[in-house]
Amino acid sequence: QVQLVESGGGVVQPGRSLRLSCAASRFTFSTYAMHWVRQAPGKGLEWVAVISYDGSTKYYADSVKGRFTISRDNSKNTLYLQLNTLRAEDTAVYYCARDHQEYSRTYFFDYWGQGTLVTVSS
Amino acid sequence: DIQMTQSPSTLSASVGDRVTITCRASQSISSCLAWYQQKPGKAPKLLIYKASSLESGVPSRFSGSGSGTEFTLTISNLQPDDFATYYCQQCNTLGTFGQGTKLEIK
Fold first, then answer.
1. Which residues of B touch A47 (CB under 8 A)?
2. Tens digits of per-residue pLDDT, B12-28?
3. A9 touches chain B (CB under 8 A)
4. Per-residue pLDDT tens for B46-66?
C-alpha cells in the first residue's frame, strides 16, 4: 500500500522559516507529480503547490507564491516544502498528496499522508 | 481564479437516505472535478474524479455527475460510515477546493 509520511512541522515565529518533508514508499515515486495541500484549524482544504514527476515544473497558489518552494529528491523518494517568511495565516496541517496519474498533473489526489501541523505564533 | 461553491454547507440525513451535494464553479471547468470525503483528524479520501469516475475501492453508492459549471455528488442508501465532510475540487486551473459540506446524522 502506498505510504506518505510527512515530518518537519512545529511551532515557529512569524517571519521565520521551516522545511517540511514527505517520505514516500511502496510506489515508484519518480513517475508521479506530487502536491502539498493544507488545512487551517477548523477550516477547509487549500491546494498549495505541485511539482512534476521530474521536478522540472512547479506551480504555487497565489497565497504562498514567492514565499514557499516545493522540491523533490527522487533518489531519496522524498518531497519537500520550504516555508519562508511565515505568517499567522500559514498555520495549518500540511498534507503531501500523490497525483492520480503517472507522468502527468491531473490535480486529482489519490493518496495522502497523515499531515504535519505548522503553527506560526510569537 | 476559479471559485468553487458547495451547497448546502450542512446536511442532516438518516441511515438509508439518498442525499445530493451540489458544487458550482465560477467558470466552466469541463469535467475537471473531484470529490473527497474527510473524517475528523484524518486525511481526505478521493471518491470521484473527472466528475463521474468512481475511484477504485469506493462503494458504488457514491456517484458523481455534471459538467461545465454545475456538479453533484449523490450518496445512495447512506451508511453510518458516510457521515463526514465532503469537498469538491476543480482541476482546470491548479486545484481549488469548495468550502465543504458536513453530512450529519439526523
1. 89, 94-97
2. 999 999 999 999 999 99
3. no
4. 999 999 999 999 999 999 999
